[in-house]
């Protein structure tokens, strides 16, 4: 997962709360917020999975999130 895909996935899943969640929600699995984790160089996919687990996102929405559907373009 690329950083751009991560950001699209977060926006798609959390909408208007996305920025607040990235900046304020401490992810115990990573030990910091998503914003700090990105700055620290932690893989966006690892952050996404930790965020999904922490926010109780249904597992069927964890994989493939943030990707652009090339067939629709």
Automatic annotation (TrEMBL):
InterPro entries linked to this entry: DUF3046
Domain of life: Bacteria
Pfam families xref list: DUF3046
Listed name of the protein: DUF3046 domain-containing protein
């Amino acid at each position: 997962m690329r950083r751009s895909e991560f950001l699209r996935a977060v926006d798609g899943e959390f909408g208007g709360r996305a920025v607040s969640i990235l900046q304020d929600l401490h992810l115990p699995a990573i030990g910091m917020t998503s914003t700090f984790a990105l700055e620290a160089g932690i893989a966006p996919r690892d952050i996404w999975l930790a965020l999904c687990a922490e926010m109780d996102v249904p597992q069927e929405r964890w994989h493939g999130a943030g990707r652009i559907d090339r067939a629709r373009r």
